[in-house]
From TrEMBL:
The lineage of its organism: Archaea, Methanobacteriati, Methanobacteriota, Stenosarchaea group, Methanomicrobia. The chain crosses the membrane at residues 280-305, 325-355, 367-387. Residues 22-238 form the MacB-like periplasmic core domain. This is ABC3 transporter permease protein domain-containing protein. Keywords: Cell membrane, Membrane, Transmembrane, Transmembrane helix. Its main location: membrane. It is found in: Cell membrane. InterPro entries: ABC3_permease_C, MacB_PCD, Macrolide_Exporter_MacB. Residues 285-397 form the ABC3 transporter permease C-terminal domain. Signal peptide: none annotated. It is a multi-pass membrane protein. One of its GO terms (molecular function) is transmembrane transporter activity.
Length: 404
């Protein structure tokens, strides 16, 4: 019986004798494995990225948004504040307004909030302080607004003029004293609808006074622990529904309720579903490439068997058994698959690193991908080589030696 080491040497010798053909044969495996490795690595990087970015706002926040103007007021604020499991809550109101600083005007998002917002969403300041509910015409400026939106940087103790447009079409301008600047975002930070770095925060009481309004647009709440986020969200939902006269049967109908509730757990779940769908789609395309690669290996192995018919007959006449020849050609097919797997994994690793670097994503490469790539590529080689190897092993030595 031929030894495994000898079979391996013969397999490498056969592959080496037809380098170009072997390379083209392995190309399908290389492309398929590279695509799968790069895709799964990118998926892991996106998961880590979204987790890190959402973590900056804390992992236990809950946002309640009104669908209609005038829906939320102090009574709904108190309903949420009294909900069991709610640690902090802040009203929110967002408007786009004209901001003037040293004769330069820009349209900036203004967030009306309370003193509790930094605790709820984990907003940190680079300098200065956040306002209290006793303050009136003071502002905390987002870092990007302070450093990039105007000709000169905005600093603490500077004054800015904010002009709001009321619902009746009239405008009102008020001077605000800057008392704080938020921390600068990290490179590649997630941009969302609520972005502290690109907004200016003022007391919501001041915003409503200037707009001649009394309502709130949303609430930001914080649960005591991440595990309580969903139960607390559900309880807020029930309490608000009773407060606003929403029937209990409509609690699960987002198209009927006049408000919506989101939390980090829901966001992470939605992002996971999105990345999973993309991963499945791209992996399916990559698997097609692997299928093409496996057909290529089978095809080239059949060609090899045909070309080596006399050699196979000679081997049989020298005492090579069915099992010897079967293992010889199977090992050759598996080596082709393994070569494709090694090159594909390396290409996928480099490709994912380049894409992650260019997109500003954390570099996450699960080590199991390497072993999975090797296992799958060898398995494909094994499956693709069964028919050609069996054909070679079953040859009649006399007929093989007589072939031209």
């Amino acid at each position: 019986m031929i030894k495994f080491k000898e079979s391996l040497m013969l397999a490498f010798g056969s592959i080496n004798s037809a380098k170009l053909r072997s390379a083209l044969t392995a190309l399908g495996i290389i492309i398929g494995v590279a695509a799968v490795v790069a895709n799964l690595s990118l998926g892991a990087s996106f998961d880590q990225y979204f987790t890190d970015e959402l973590g900056e706002f804390g992992d236990n926040f809950i946002i309640v948004m009104a669908q209609d103007t005038g829906l939320f007021g102090n009574s709904q604020l108190e309903v949420i504040r009294r909900t069991q499991g709610v640690e902090d809550v802040s009203p929110l109101k967002q408007r786009s307004a004209e901001v003037e600083f040293r004769s330069v005007s820009r349209q900036i998002t203004i967030e009306g909030t309370s003193q509790d917002l930094p605790d709820v969403l984990g907003i940190n300041l680079e300098s200065g302080n956040y306002f209290t509910d006793n303050n009136q015409f003071v502002a905390v400026v987002g870092n990007q607004v302070a450093t990039e939106r105007f000709d000169r940087p905005i600093g603490n103790r500077n004054s800015i003029d904010i002009t709001f447009r009321r619902s009746d079409g009239t405008t009102v301008t008020q001077t605000f004293k800057v008392i704080g600047i938020t921390e600068a975002p990290e490179p590649g930070a997630l941009q969302t609808g609520f972005n502290p770095e690109t907004s200016i925060f003022i007391p919501i009481s001041a915003m409503n006074e200037l707009l001649d309004e009394t309502d709130y647009g949303a609430f930001a709440a914080r649960a005591a622990t991440p595990e309580e986020v969903r139960p607390v969200s559900d309880q807020i939902d029930r309490n608000l529904a009773r407060s606003l006269g929403v029937p209990a049967r409509d609690l699960d109908r987002d198209d009927v309720k006049p408000y919506s509730i989101i939390n980090q757990a829901d966001i992470v779940e939605q992002l996971d579903e999105l990345t999973t769908a993309l991963t499945v789609l791209i992996t399916a395309v990559a698997l097609i490439a692997l299928l093409v690669g496996s057909i290529g290996i089978m095809n080239i192995m059949l060609v090899t068997v045909t070309e080596r018919t006399k050699e196979i007959g000679l081997m049989k006449s020298l005492g090579f058994t069915y099992r010897d020849l079967l293992s010889l050609f199977l090992i050759e097919a598996m080596v082709l698959g393994l070569i494709g797997g090694i090159l594909g994994a390396g290409l996928g690793l480099v490709g994912s690193f380049i894409l992650e670097f260019s997109l500003g994503l954390p570099h996450v490469f699960p080590i199991y991908l390497i072993f999975t790539a090797f296992f799958v590529s060898v398995l494909i080689g094994l499956i693709s080589g069964v028919y050609p190897a069996n054909k070679a092993a079953k040859m009649n030595p006399v007929d093989a030696l007589r072939s031209e």
